[in-house]
Specification:
Radius of gyration: 29 Å
Helix content: 25-40%
Strand content: 15-25%
Number of helices: 17
Amino acid sequence: MYRTHNCGELREINVGNVVKLSGWVHKKRDHGNLLFIDLRDHYGITQCVVDPSSEAFSDVEKIRLECIVTVEGEVIRRSPETINPEKPTGKIEVRIDKFTVLSYVESLPMAVSSVSDLSEDTRLKYRFIDLRREKIHKNIVLRSQVISSIREKMKKQGFLEINTPILTSSSPEGARDFLVPSRLHPGQFYALPQAPQQFKQLLMVAGFDKYFQIAPCFRDEDSRADRSPGEFYQLDFEMSFCTQDDVFAVIEPVIFEIFKEYSDKEVSPYPFRRISYADAMLHYGSDKPDLRNPLLIEDVSDIFEQSSFTVFVNNVKKGGVVRAIAAKDADKQPRSYFDKLNDWAKTLEMPGLGYVTYSGDNQVRQKLGEDLHLLKDSFEFCWVVDFPMYELNEDTGEIEFSHNPFSMPQGGMDALQNMNPLEIKAYQYDIVCNGIELSSGAIRNHLPDVMIKAFEIAGYQAEEVQERFKGMFNAFKYGAPPHGGCAPGIDRMIMLLADEPNIREVIAFPLNQQAQDLMMNAPSNVSQKQLKELHIKIDLPKKIGRSNSI
């Protein structure tokens, strides 16, 4: 009824055929004796033409951009000078004989066929229109293709896709939970899962051996360019009877093949490079090193300890360190470059910056790499391993977990009983690409007595551990295999593949930076009736000035 072909399908072989196409009016051009419209659908664009002798001419003449129409007519070959080699349909066009309007549009709040500078809030309020634009449309198609490919690759390795609950209990660790009030249990709340962490470990206890899912995760966090507030998706997987090396061997070919398949850039081959946390902080100034940048940070304290530069000498005497970056060809830069670099350092609240010395972190290394055009146009992967199990809270002076509290300490119970906690390493690892953390993972602490001891060092009583992690702790008492896993972020992978600086460009319906859905008006007020059903009263801050609804 609506189409014999889609708008990306017709070729020279179809010349002479009478066809029917339906789609959106993408562009319209009036050449006096001829009217052209570009008709767009999900698959592509086909140029259609009508002349004044056609009964359809007046209807085409009046049509607005983005109206949805059906055209019927003969496929004709374009003249050589009008061929568009950039479009798959560029050698043909459809001569319009019949023209039907399926849906009219009002005045558009934003352009679709041209790139225009729009505020993010405008784009998100009218996201259904924004998604019609070619670039963002391609990003969402790419996302679907990547997820399908990931599923295929995981299943080929024997992993079983299992969905875990969305309504669960609140977690005392990590980011803030999104809470859901219970109608049947007044005063009690579910939480949306920050990750399927405990459930996937319970699946290992249950004997499923290899699990994965494209898991939705919910965290009440502030927005960043590489982090969407609210929800995100990850390739969550777990496996039994495995070591750290086994986990790496599973995920490395999946990630490598995905990036090779969906990008033209060079991809670092697997096995990916492994860098200890200590070396990452020393040589890259970050636990998320960007290996495209060849510059390394080195400890040169012993050299400058004997120098005449008293700032450095005094710093080393007080137990501090002096670190330097050897930037190739930096000496060829004019004096003004270093003056600007020094001014830039002051904007970061540094006292200043010497030509080759600094007292800072990864920011200077990255800026030099970018300014000196040293970054490779490639995807460089690495594992950051050997994270410290514990760290000292600078405010309280107390020992706390530095990363994942459910990780197995290297050395097990013996390390927990006999080592300085701040020297204990964990079987924890991050996979990093071009300075962006894609995933955290770990070999899990599956032994109840080791778990109790690990949490005791961080200030938790045994009873508290058993109560807070009741489901998992009880399960471990009935026998848990050694297990571990990882969870690469889907959104961040797509962001890299699409070469987008902002993660919202690869999510169909993201929240804005204030964690609002402007299109669906969420979060929003609810009625007193709904609140009463949930046994909830609202106590808003006085400055908001509302108390009857939320």
